[in-house]
Design goal:
By secondary structure, the protein is mainly α. The chain is built from 19 helices and no strands. Helix 3 (about 45-65) packs across helix 7 (about 110-125), helix 7 (about 110-125) crosses helix 9 and helix 15 (about 240-250) crosses helix 16 (about 250-270). The longest helix is centred in the N-terminal third of the chain and has 23 residues, at about 45-65. The termini are far apart.
C-alpha cells in the first residue's frame, strides 16, 4: 500500500508517511461507520467517547487537508484503498461528529446509551453544536419522543425551547398543520414552544411563523370557552418570552389587554367563568398585569389601551 500510495500522492506537499497515517486513521473511522450493530448494549462509555474523539480528529484532519488544498486528491486515494461505497464514505465524512451522534440515536440500544452519548458530546463540543445537530436529526429520528425526552436533561431550558421551536417550524414548513386545532388541544409546553417560534426571525421559517401568528389571532378573536386552556397557558409563559411576544406583536397584545379587561369585569361583578373564554383569579390577573408592565414600553401601551375598554383606570393602576 505504501508504494502505491506514494505514487499517487506525488503532487502532495505532505510527507508520504503522514498521508499513510491519515489513511489508516480514516479507514478505522469508516470501519466504525460501517458497523451496523454499533453501538450496542455492551458498548462502554469509553468506546463511545473514543468514537467521538475519532470523529473530532477526522473533522480536524479534513480541515487541515482542505487548507493544504489536497482534499480532493486525498479523498480519491481514500476511495481507492477502501472497500466501502463512495456514498457511505461521503456521508460519514460530511460531518463526522454528527454521523456518530446519529448512529447512537438510531441504534437499538438502551436509552442510557443515548444519554451517555449526549453527555460526552457536550464535554467535547458545544451546546450550540448539539442543538443544531439535534434539530436536524429530529426530523430524521425514528422516535422523536425518545429523542426529546432524553435531550431535555442535557440542555438549559432556553436551548430546549429553541430546539423544539425549530423542530415545530420545520414541521409547519412541510405540512398543512392546523395551528388552531393545536391551540384548542394545547399543553403548557406546546404554548411555550409556539410563543418562542413566533419570535423567530429567520427567513427560512417566515411562512411557518406567519401560520402561528394567524392561528393565535384566530383563537383570541373567537372568545370561545374552548380556548380557555390556551389563555391559561399563555399567561404562564416565561416572562421574557411573553413580554417580547407582546412587544413584537402589537396586534396580539391589544387582544390580550382586551381579554384582561373582560376577565376583570367578570371578577368585579362576581360572575361565574365556567362558560367564559378566560378565567383568572384576582391574584393571577394582578400577576399578568405586573408582568406586562415590567417593560416600560408595554406599560405605557397597556394603560393607553385599557382606557378604550375600562373607565376605571385606578383599578388597574392599583395593581402596579
Amino acid at each position: 500500500m505504501v508504494q502505491g500510495t506514494a505514487l499517487k500522492l506525488q503532487g502532495f506537499k505532505m510527507d508520504t508517511a503522514v498521508v499513510e497515517q491519515f489513511l489508516n486513521f480514516f479507514q478505522d473511522y469508516i470501519g466504525l461507520c460501517q458497523c451496523e450493530n454499533w453501538p450496542d448494549n455492551d458498548t462502554t462509555e469509553t468506546e463511545i467517547r473514543n468514537a467521538f474523539l475519532i470523529a473530532q480528529h477526522v473533522e480536524k484532519s479534513l480541515d487541515r487537508l482542505q487548507k493544504k488544498t489536497v482534499i480532493s486528491e486525498f479523498l480519491s486515494v481514500l476511495n481507492t484503498h477502501n472497500e466501502a461505497s463512495s456514498n457511505l464514505i461521503k456521508n460519514c465524512l460530511n460531518d463526522p461528529p454528527k454521523y456518530i451522534l446519529n448512529k447512537i440515536i438510531n441504534s437499538n440500544t438502551r436509552i442510557t446509551q443515548m444519554d451517555t452519548g449526549f453527555r460526552i458530546f457536550l464535554e467535547l463540543f458545544s451546546e450550540e453544536k448539539l442543538e443544531n445537530y439535534l434539530t436536524e436529526l429530529m426530523l430524521e429520528a425514528a422516535s422523536k419522543e425518545t429523542l426529546l425526552r432524553n435531550v431535555t436533561n442535557k440542555l438549559p431550558r432556553d436551548k430546549i425551547l429553541e430546539f423544539k421551536s425549530k423542530v415545530l417550524l420545520s414541521q409547519l414548513k412541510s405540512s398543512e398543520t392546523d395551528v388552531v386545532k393545536l391551540l384548542m388541544n394545547c399543553s403548557q409546553d406546546l404554548v411555550d414552544v409556539l410563543v418562542v417560534s413566533l419570535l423567530n426571525n429567520e427567513l427560512q421559517y417566515g411562512q411557518a411563523v406567519q401560520l402561528i401568528a394567524n392561528g393565535i389571532h384566530e383563537i383570541v378573536l373567537l372568545k370561545d370557552s374552548a380556548s380557555k386552556t390556551f389563555w391559561k397557558f399563555l399567561f404562564k409563559v416565561e416572562d421574557r418570552y411573553f413580554t417580547e411576544m407582546c412587544i413584537e406583536n402589537s396586534d396580539i397584545f391589544i387582544y390580550i389587554v382586551e381579554a384582561l379587561t373582560d376577565c376583570s369585569k367578570l371578577l368585579r361583578e362576581g360572575m361565574s367563568a365556567d362558560s367564559f373564554y378566560i378565567e383568572l383569579s384576582h391574584s393571577e390577573l394582578v400577576g399578568v398585569v405586573q408582568k406586562i408592565c415590567s417593560k416600560e414600553c408595554l406599560k405605557s401601551l397597556f394603560l393607553d389601551t385599557i382606557k378604550n375598554y375600562d373607565n376605571d383606570l385606578n383599578y388597574w393602576e392599583a395593581m402596579l
